[in-house]
User: Fold this.
Amino acid sequence: MLSVIIVTDGLEQPAVATLAALVPGAAAGVIREVLLVDRSGSDTIARVADIAGCGYIAFEGSRAAALAAGAASARSSWLLFVPAGAVLDTGWIDETTQFVQSVSTSGRPRAGIFRYARSPYAVTSWRERLRWVARMLGLPSADQGLLISREHYDRLGGYAPDARRAESKLLRRLGRSSRTLLRSRIVVA
Assistant:
């Protein structure tokens, strides 16, 4: 049902934290595959993928190009883009299943983003404060993850591999009317 794409930069701990939060979804049959797209060139994430039973793609290039490569390799009709280190709330499985079913039956293309929750251990910087203001204004962030059907993703043109801030641009192309803020939270470190 769902392919999860996680772009990593060679750091084991954030990737493992995100994978651990996805285990219940795999056990429930919601997740068909998980793809770790590593931009670091080291073998650390390859070992993590091997141990966790995930797909692995070694990739050199921008984050947007890595996301596009992960989407191109995914086999499911629904894509879930999650940043490495992000942990989904426990209720995400039921909500994701309901969202996919409602969008499939309605015939109206929509994408879901999760509610942002900052980790209590994260360092607060001026950039983080600026993101907080943007979230209060209702502007989504790439840190919030993205749940989208492959068909809708392809129709929008996906992540432009050579564009700056491709994640934000895709969220803007979705528009407010095509985007749903899910109740489940995503905790970002």
User: Anything to note?
Assistant: The chain has a mean pLDDT of 87. Strands lie at 2-8, 31-38, 55-58, 78-81, 87-88, 111-118, 146-149, 179-188.
